[in-house]
Amino acid sequence: MDKISLKAEKREYLGKKSRKLRRLGVLPANLFGKGIQSVSIKINQNDFLNAFKQAKTTHVVYLKLDKEELPVLIQNAQKHPISREILHADFRKIDLKEKVETEVPVVVVGELEVVKSGEADIITLRDHLLVEALPTNIPDKIVVDISKLGGIGAEVRVKDLPKGKDYEFIEDEDASVVQIAEAKKEEIVAPPPAEEAEAAAEGAPAEAGEAAPEEKATEEKKEE
């Protein structure tokens, strides 16, 4: 992958005032990391989106700020719950010669007959896994192949995943990542018998202890 660069400037608008930046096409962000003070920054929204599309959270981005070029990882890209627009992001300064811990997305591949037939569902219990690696060796994704699983009840745990020579999992090796579970079936309510349907159409039967309409009318005449 080609070198990914982003230009940033220090930001004065903080808190709710950051909305003004977004209206101008500028993304508010923070820069933090080992050996530097946390600083509020701003980046052109379109430039950020282009960089994030390539780098995601697993590739090194070179952030240009005050005549410096800092290697960083994009983290905590916060999205609007409805529009999904990115509202804020964090940039974590890293040392290219030191290993870092970061989350890598899980991608499920392969097919199972019980899933294709609708008998079972794929349950992804972990959509990210924590790994440790040099910044330039962080994998794009963790691939989980379900095609060889036994069927309903089968699962993939961290210890079952292929081990990478350039990274290691910082996870409980017995933690479940993906499970094959029996599909939940919708309860079908059978229609009432024809006799009951006809009775319902003519009028609901009187509740227990209550006289039917005809009996009520007779009782009222007696009282008169």
Task: Summarize the structure in words.
With 224 residues, the chain is an alpha+beta fold. The protein has 5 helices and 14 strands. It has helices at 18-23, 45-55, 113-116, 194-202, 213-223, and strands spanning 5-7, 9-10, 26-33, 39-44, 61-65, 68-79, 86-93, 100-109, 120-124, 128-133, 142-145, 155-157, 167-169, 176-182. It has a 7-stranded mixed sheet. A 4-stranded mixed sheet has the order 11-8-10-13, with no helix packed on it. Strands 9-14-12 form a 3-stranded antiparallel sheet. The longest helix is centred in the N-terminal third of the chain and has 11 residues, at 45-55. The termini are far apart. Mean pLDDT is 86; it is low at 204-224.
Keywords:
224 residues, alpha+beta, 7-stranded mixed β-sheet, 4-stranded mixed β-sheet, disordered C terminus
The helix fraction, in percent, is 10-25%
- Computed over alpha carbons, the radius of gyration is 31 Å
The unreliable regions are 204-224
Counted by DSSP, the helix tally is 5
Strand order of the largest sheet: 1-5-6-7-3-4-2
Strand-residue fraction? Answer: 35-45%
The coarse silhouette is globular
Class derived from helix and strand content: alpha+beta
Kindly, what is the distance between the CA atoms of the first and last residues, rounded to a whole number of angstroms? 98 Å
Mean pLDDT: 86
Helices and strands, in order, run as: EEHEEHEEEEHEEEEEEHH
Please provide the count of β strands.
Answer: 14
Characterize the main sheet.
7 strands, mixed
